Amino acid sequence: MKKFLIKISLSILTLSLVLWFTDTEALLQAFRESPPTAILVTAAGYALTLMVTSYKWFLLLRHAGVGHSLRNTLGATFAGAYVNCFGLGTLGGDLVRSVLAADDKRDRDKSLALVVFDRALGLAVLATIGIAFGMGQLLSSHLTGLIIVALLIVTGCVLLGYGAPRMASRFGSSQRPAIRRLGRILSVVPQDPKVLLAASLVALLYHFLQISLFWLVTIQIGAPVSLVTLLGIIPFVNIAGTLPLSWMGVGVREAVLASLTVPVLFSKEIAVLAGMIWSASVVFASAASGVVFVWYRNRMNVPVDEGVQSAHSGLRPGR
Hints:
Largest sheet: none
Number of strands: 0
Structural class: mainly alpha
Oligomer: single chain
Shape: globular
Distance between the termini: 23 Å
């Protein structure tokens, strides 16, 4: 709870600083001129992208022999999104969905490892999109540094995937139980090119849909920008928004978006408004995921309370 309150406080502080340097009258005018359905439409689209990314995770789980159905994986993804927003943060939400997706308690280590790999793969694909489309449109001096960071992210994720089986083999023969457990976790990282290609393509679709959603936001608020241009900018905004420095990226997202797009693409007010609509849509969709969270309590074999407890305990061995 303490970390959650710190993130909320940092988001409020960051967003307040952004608004301090923004013409609030112009921002309110732009908000009044935007359609009242903008947040609902974007939230519905965001929920659709959650379905897409749950399929990517399902492919990884199925390859490792974890979980039993796409339906269960989809439900775990939505429950995790709710916990991400209103519970234990991103790490806690990932721990909860890893517990819920595993039929057997003995598979929870594997499920958690695949959550981490799922995140790393998605991050690598998102960074690759930013590099590919950002190189040709250096609209801001900040973009050059972000492209370099993205290159480091991709390199790190590739090295992790390449080195995982070798580390698994070495750790698996260790005399220390904790190291052997780490070896078992690393052993589930997929090496099958077909599985990696399929998961990467789904990740590509997921991020393309999310960036297209932001493109739709710009159209709704009367400030349309080329989708190709956004493909070189939004990946870096989304990467910044996922850092554990704020609540759901609120404040950070608006600040980074403004720094990359003002004044070349947007006015300061439009950039802040677009970021706030996106943030509100994510929160709204995550709140709606609470219905799935409650459904898990009543319908699934694995109680959500146990998942939350495991998240707090860090998935100790034997749980």
